[in-house]
Amino acid sequence: MDAQIISGKEISEQIREELREKVAYLKDRGITPGLGVVLVGEDPASKIYVNNKIKACEDLGLKSKAVILPAEVTEDELLKKVDELNADPEIHAFLVQLPLPKHIDENKVINRIDPHKDADAFHPFNVGRMLIGDPIFMPATPHGIQEMLVRSGNDPAGKHVVIIGRSNIVGKPVAAILMQKGKGANATVTVCHSRTSNLQEIVKTGDIVVAAIGSPRFITKDMIKEGAVVIDVGTNRVEDATAKKGYRLVGDVDFENVKEVASAITPVPGGVGPMTIVMLMKNAISAAYKANNLEM
Q1: What pTM did the predictor assign?
Q2: Which residues belong to the annotated binding site?
Q3: Which residues belong to the active site?
Q4: Whole domain around residue 100: which residue ranges?
């Protein structure tokens, strides 16, 4: 059996086309949606993410503003930048790229962001709204996973979804989104993590498995039940002497072997990654609609 490959590139392109119309509608009314990105320090992975976000803004016709700060910036200076973006009428949504240097309290920074400009949907206000099923914004990666499932014909309704990983960025919000009453949800959700005993048996009961643990090729073929749908959120660098850069990216799933038993699977790269960027753009555009009392 050949597994269906769920392409994040293709699905994100569909969503981009829908968003182009939304942007055109705003521009007809003299509004250009604006997204701000704050980057602290020189983390290479974070720099790539920020550049990808700026490129996506250009592609969709959004105004972008990148605030690049040195790693030794003080917490107060960073909070001042957050206040400036909160007050900037041309920036409808923004995010502070995580992780931050150790001397800065991430929670303090997230709590300082205006919830109505919170592009990542990490503010406790937005997390709470999501949990009760009345979100203003949805976090980009978890929402992207939901869109991938629905648009690839793998609706989670009535299915048992097993999530491996309990981070605030992926594991917990995916669980909250997929258990809601409503379209693209209505799943029965189990969350596993590093302290779960009998992990293999639990994962094997999943109709849909979401791997988000940050451990290369951790999910093996014998953990997946025949016909399950596998969403791989992991992006891990592994050394590879044959690759031009000396490394390559692999997911948390042993893709080559797992695709022999799965009915559908996401690749790494080209799976969840492109979805994260496009859902972030959707949040920025949605914020511009809301700021102007328009229905998106």
Answers
A1: 0.95
A2: 165-167, 235
A3: 53, 97, 120
A4: 29-114
